[in-house]
Request: fold
Amino acid sequence: MEGVTVVDHPLVQHKLTLIRDKKRSTKSFRELLNEIGTLLCYEVTRDLPLTDVQIETPVAPMTGKEIAGKKLVFAPILRAGLSFVEGMIALVPSARIAHIGLYRDPVTFVAVEYFFKAPVNLDDRLVIVIDPMLATANTAVAAIDRIKERGAKEIRFVCLLAAPEGIERLRGHHPDVPIWTAAIDERLDEHAYIVPGLGDAGDRAYGTK
Ligand code: URA
Reply:
């Protein structure tokens, strides 16, 4: 599928099976979301440009490499994006964070914004939008609309699970935004939940059901 990378690393696939299990505790669900976040962060940053930097080891001067350009921005969609982003921050501790509060109306599935706080200028930063579940893509499309309003030009989207319907809609609205996911599931059900999926990621991560 064009513009979509399925991260089929064995560790990701193993942890994905664990996190899907309905018997998993809230604590373990959150830990796994965090761990998979770290592994997906490794993949989504794989091609970041590097620049030369002069350093001195205890033995000799040398030319090393460091990531070029301004600090990355992680943009988790609340709530479930929060546990997911923690694992990414573990790998990129200096990243800036844009919090995007969006929920989907349970009847219409339309995205409703209740919070948005992002670094002022995003036009020369890579912004990685993060939501574990790409279902209808209503919240993902709305989040990326807002990030683009702030000037972002280079955006990537990372999720744990995607429905084919969500991928189609997100790629249709934002064809310039590539997607990384651990799996593409079968479909959405009548409540817009991913099948087989893992249920409500926010409720499972925070024990609210
Ligand atoms: N959001 C979730 O948390 N789970 C789904 O299956 C779909 C949207």
